[in-house]
Amino acid sequence: MTSSNGWIRRKVLIAGVLIPLFVHPSCYADHLRIGVASNFRSTLEQIATGFELAHNIEVEVSAASTGALFAQVKSGAPFDILFAADSIRPALLESEGHTRLRRTYAYGQLVFWTPGQPANETALKQYKGTMAIANPRHAPYGKAATDTLELMQVKSDRVVYGTNIAQAFNFVRTGNAPAGLIALSQIKHLNVPAIEFWVVPPESYAPIEQQLVVLKDASMKAELFVAYTFDPGTIRLIEKSGYLVSDTGNQPGTGADR
Amino acid sequence: MTDSDLVSLWLTLKLAGATTLVLIVLGTPLAWWLSQRSLSRERGWLRNTLQNIVEPLVALPIVLPPTVVGFYLLLAFSPNNLPGELWQSATGTTLAFSFYGLVVGSAIYSLPFYVQPLQVAFSALQRELIEAAATLGASPLDRFFSLIVPLCRRGFIIAICLSFAHTVGEFGIVLMIGGNIPHETRVLSIAIYDHVEAMEYQQAHVLSAGLLIFSFLALFVVFLINRRWSTKS
User: Fold this and answer.
1) I need a labelling partner for B188 at 20 to 30 A (CA). Which of A128, B99, B167, B202 fits?
2) Residue B206 sits in a domain of what CATH number?
3) What ipTM was estimated for this complex?
């Protein structure tokens, strides 16, 4: 017993030394916490770096699937802004009174990627092997992928699901699946040769409308970040990263349509 | 429970059963070998050194995050790399996204849960008994099945229960190498994750509560056997 008491005391001591190290960032007055859907992570990190330089406000980015982020926010995760990969969950959060602002920040683009093979419409229509896509039940890119497979009547003999678009991408990148329907942003990030991927025409699937929400109890600096996100320079960066941005001021999908 | 949940349940039981069978066949000799430390320093030097290396290797899955095992399996299963290439040329399919791939992953991940209890049971055997059986003319196989197995039944049952239950509870590796295919790789833990991600909390509750009860019962049996038989023998 005495030895286990000593062990506990030592643990408390260690915790006493370590915990302040981890607590430090949240004591920061100018500090934003942003949850982001996996597909937009690298773009958001670039935006955040620019924002930190411009405004001297620290930004912490946590990436997860939109579904996981949604569940976390509902159970009180301390995010200021959420960059989702869809518009359904942001609208739900809004209707449940968790938010104070909702806006579409980008439209995702789907690509057909076959490493080592030329990719184009015919190649997709004639593709017969294993195809990696995101899970259509909860990932917006997965829904777009099944829409496309159906419309193009692809006869792939096996469709495998990644829990999100990042995992679908990894299945192809590691060579376990010879092809996949994934996000253009991922391809851009990796500098894939243009011959290996084909951007699926946006008419082939329901739009992947990605929305952000500012959460109800967010820091007042959150709106500053949102304004920075819609700055022309940032919009160019988002487009360069493989997204479409609606250039009109009024964002489709916001407001009264849900 | 929906039909697809029932399919997942059956698949989970099939995976846990297949994994446990693989472990019985491969893990039993391994546990036996690990339990036989050589008493002579000089003659048993090589064997003891090998055991010192293999023992922590077997225990690694306990401390490693499943993501590490899953990541390396994903690379190993890829037809771009040798193990995946060999499998593909032999069977024409890939190990990733297949039931067999999951069996390989689960067997690695549950290995310590099978080997360790058995190794402890083997180590506790009295050598004199086995030597006596040998002098009476019992062959090694005969000694194993009619002497060692009955004497170590507690270790066997605990090892089987733990590796079965641990495979049922597996998530991380399956998530990384499974590809979520109904009838093949969508086991219960993945189905639960899916329901939660799709905001179907009701279905998630049904499956989660079921797993909770199953896991409790499995551990209850393990502890019961441990207590009962330890006082008897």
Assistant:
1) A128
2) 1.10.3720.10
3) 0.75
